[in-house]
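Record passed on here:
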Amino acid sequence: MTYRAPVSDIVFTMRHVAGLDRAMADGVYGDLSADLSQTILEEAGRFANDVIAPLNREGDKHGATLKDGVVTTAPGWKQAYKAWTGAGWNALPGPVDYGGQGLPTLLNSACVEMWNSASMAFGIGPILTMGAIEALIAHASDDLKSRYLEKLVSGEWTATMNLTEPQAGSDLAAIRSRAEPSGDGIYRITGQKIFITYGEHDLTDNIVHLVLARLPDAPAGTRGISLFLVPKFLSDGTRNDVRCHSIEHKLGIHASPTCTMIFGDNGGAIGWLVGEENRGLACMFTMMNNARLAVGLQGVAIAERAYQQALAYANERRQGRAIGAAEGMSPIAVHPDVQRNLLTMKALTAAARAICYMTAEAIDRAHLEEDPARRKKANERASLLTPVAKAFSTDIGVEVASLGVQVHGGMGFIEETGAAQHFRDARIAPIYEGTNGIQAIDLVVRKLPLSGGETVRAQIASMRATVARLLKESTPAFGATAPRLRDAIESLDRATGFLLQAVSSNVQGEALAGATPYLRLFALAQGGAALAEMALAANAQAAAGDADPAHAGRIALCRFFAENIAVGAKGLEDTVMSGAGFLQDATLALAS
């Protein structure tokens, strides 16, 4: 099934939920206009539709191959990447000083969604390069910036993130890779890294690895980790002492080479320190935070792709007779249970998209606001929303892709329809760039206490303000949207107070046990409020004479979310506030 970029929905969400119009009015985005944004996104949509999407199925079937240390990507991959960088898409958010276009994170986030809807295996590579650019801008020396940033910004070279080792998954304190100083600011890197996305490939002439390793006298734990830039090829054209040992045979994203990388077979790979010694984790988090939003967008992307395919199939597949229909079989899209599945898919996708775009706008303000107090406020808001954007969006990516298989029925379990690929591809996103359990812990333990809890309280107040506007509307089409969303937000408020108290009192069991259901609760309340903003905007435009039929659809989708999905908030609240009791009996239950 052909993917069509939902540019209209993307632009509407950017303008009426994420705050694009407000940011332009505030001067945050310089001379960026709504018309220019629309033009860029339409062009990105065409590229995603016409160039990347047709390669998705072939990439899944063919995969990437390794022979004699050389990784060859799927047929068409190299040509598509060259066309993509040639059109300037890699440089879209890059710094102007190094050849980038300096466009906002919000605009690039919409593009990232489209690249990954077209092919998640294609889209993940540039995500890491863009994250590396952020890390180098923030932490690298002027010398490293001058040597590497321009080619990374253009996409002429790509970059990787080398954290994980066989004995060290999420526990980075267990890293064993070593870095030995060898004079003149050069270090020799030795060690093994696993799960390295695009660690080796044939798309570019050079690959820049950002590698976590320990210096000889480094303190134990995460406080003793440093970050190093290790290129595949040195500036004189010499091959560095780094190689791809193997590529993984994976459940999904087959066309993305996931590599085991070996550094230092012959004395150590040459690298340069990024940032300060023993401060590498702080540097790497710059890259990881960028990647976490992008991976959240992957969840939105795969959900959108799965929804489009399921909807098309449901409109084509005829089976049974709809209630009240004349003789003959009806498309399954008119049957209530299938409609529920499709609406759930669309509503979850729209809510996750809105949360991701809100996060992107907050990141932009954290970088671009001139007033320090506003920058700080935006930075804390971005910090609060990032784990929600990453975890909720990737969770619903899996859920929506699974529903897509269900809508296809038996044919969904057959590879030739393509529905199974979306399900397989989606499953990695809740795992990489920080598992979703870790995102939930980060949200509860680190982000809720920001500014003494005022950051999250302000976010909840914003949700309440949206519901207050809904309550003033007398439009019958809204149904019970306002009271259902109000209930969800009040559940969130009570659970937030409970967890803030648990964290401040150092009651770790209650905080950690409630973290994952709390993140979901936060996302349901925030996602519902975001859809309500869209519904309010749609209602206002329709009342002003805009005959776009999408407006009625946006109102109906918001109502569905409020009355069928957000109502789960109370159960999540109960789990957060009383569910920690399982910790007392977990060992017994698991051993039985």
